[in-house]
């Protein structure tokens, strides 16, 4: 049966383990042989102990664990031709010509690059005498299925990335905890949440956590936002509410693209309200810990679908993302997802916020 390699790359996220488990067991069930590639692309570059065949029991007792048991890493060498060549060599030698890659847009982009270059990399390796011609001929094409692992929900092409739901749960728990202490002292808390250039976590946390205000990269406030923020907090105070909560996305800016940090917000409130606001930066607790139920069953379904995709896709099929679209498992060309993700980044960089919101499309429900 086909040999399927699986790797986790880039930033880890809760639920990656559920995907790994599903890919390994689906591969076995469908008659293939699963191979774990350790520490992201590094394992493929290194070969040797970096690539290990996995059995059914190797992925037991995993569903409830955060992070990734395969290890993850950034691997700058993979961007070089020599890195791609080393990966093609070791994968071909293992007879692995199908990959499930779990990672963010960088990792998936790298996978498509490897797939496109695969035949020419093999030709170079044969030319250099590092690979026997019949080894190369046995595996002339690479097939790739990508699962998006990221707490940020920052990739187009899937409604939810693996880990975003868990991160949101973690943020909500923190907001609940903060609002009880805030209420006791009539305090304002400014809470900074992760998401890089994507406001998904901040927006959904603000809605679910009942915050007074939220600052997002995709919807920067107009000049004078400080006074408006104070007015809105004072309005809710006047109704008898004792706690105030402002959520700030890590990537929040003003309309000129200048960063607005949680410290900026607290300072503005302090100046105008005569009361110090407390800042809490949640940081990496958002990325760790036990995956939510959703981040266990969703990656399980996607892992199974990814293996099916790899087993049935004809050779030469471009890389696909297996994701969630309108609450159903969906297979989307990776290039479309990368294009739409880039469109958002470019729009934010050029302060074209209407375009940024439009380009977020269905992956960002505003
Ligand atoms: P993420 O996958 O979470 O977006 P990175 O952007 O850091 O994280 O990418 C992780 C790894 O994927 C990089 O260290 C590199 O090995 C590979 N990678 C990223 N971008 C590219 C690219 N454009 N071409 C080839 N490989 C890439």
Automatic annotation (TrEMBL):
Compartments, record wording: Cytoplasm
Protein name per its UniProtKB record: 6-phosphofructokinase
Family: Belongs to the phosphofructokinase type A (PFKA) family.
Residues in Phosphofructokinase domain copies: 3-309
Primary role: Catalyzes the phosphorylation of D-fructose 6-phosphate to fructose 1,6-bisphosphate by ATP, the first committing step of glycolysis.
Ranges in coiled-coil conformation: none
Lineage top rank: taxon: Bacteria
